[in-house]
Amino acid sequence: MAKTIITCAITGAIHTPTMSDALPINSEMIAEQAIDAAKAGAAILHLHARNPANGAPSIDPAHFMEFLPRIKAETDAIVNISTGGSLSTGIVERMAPAVAASPEMCSLNMGSLNFAMHPLADRYKEWKYDWEEAYVRGSVGNIFRNTFDDIGKVAQTLGGDHQVKFEHECYDVGHIYNLKFCVDQGMFKAPIFLQFVMGILGGITANIDNLVFMKQTADRLFGTDYQWSVIGAGAQQMKLGAVSAQMGGHVRVGLEDSLFIKRGVLASSNAQQVEKMRGILETQGNEVATPAEAREMLGLKGADEVAF
């Protein structure tokens, strides 16, 4: 069995500072937690930025550049920059951090969907920052736009001269078919890397039956010429990660996807989640991939080719 890649998604754009004191909300916290997650066994670091003034999600390239050089200097981990860090801006603005940094990898969402987290707002009576409650409650009206035109712009801009490889995020079965269409159109070349995103309100539910169905669909469309991973958002994070590895896939953890280390207990850091996932994998007989091994599996350009 091939080794298992652990990705750690450090902060994301869903959770807000009120929800957990461990959530990284400035460049120093993001860098420190990313470095610790890499030391714990994460071969890939999936990165968003935050506005250091108030912890709000940011797609300002300058905010990314506050932590990217330090992460590169102190780890060998693969940097994966989000192109989906805002639900209210267009794709050109969303991919600006990746254009500036030219990383080895970027996430690329493979279809539009209702992307909502508004039920979380009812759990909190007081908020640390004024922007948080409206941001969370306002997601009831969100449409996360990822049209074929948007996907094509990212493929041409980042997959061309920048030679970025993509983590193709599939929030539902139809997104896998979207990816197949794009591959057939020549937008992307093997090895492709699918990320099954499960448990987001508006996408497919996080359970084992749906994971098996997503995998069967990908097998039918791509044969064996792809790599894949799973995000089990919320309470299913560790369970689906364990099952994914048993099925030959890779795993993603991190405070972007779940703030908890077990039911009812907030995680103290991203590294704590990586350590727990690594322990599960090694207990069930999976070997964890190093960054060098992950680069080879995914056909990446190498850390010496980035712009930070």
TrEMBL record:
Q: Name one GO molecular function term.
A: metal ion binding
**Cofactor(s) of this protein:** Zn(2+)
State the UniProt keywords alphabetically.
Answer: Metal-binding, Transferase, Zinc
Instruction: Please give the name of this protein.
Output: 3-keto-5-aminohexanoate cleavage protein
| Gene3D superfamilies referenced in this protein's UniProt entry, alphabetically | Aldolase class I
Matches recorded under Pfam families:
BKACE
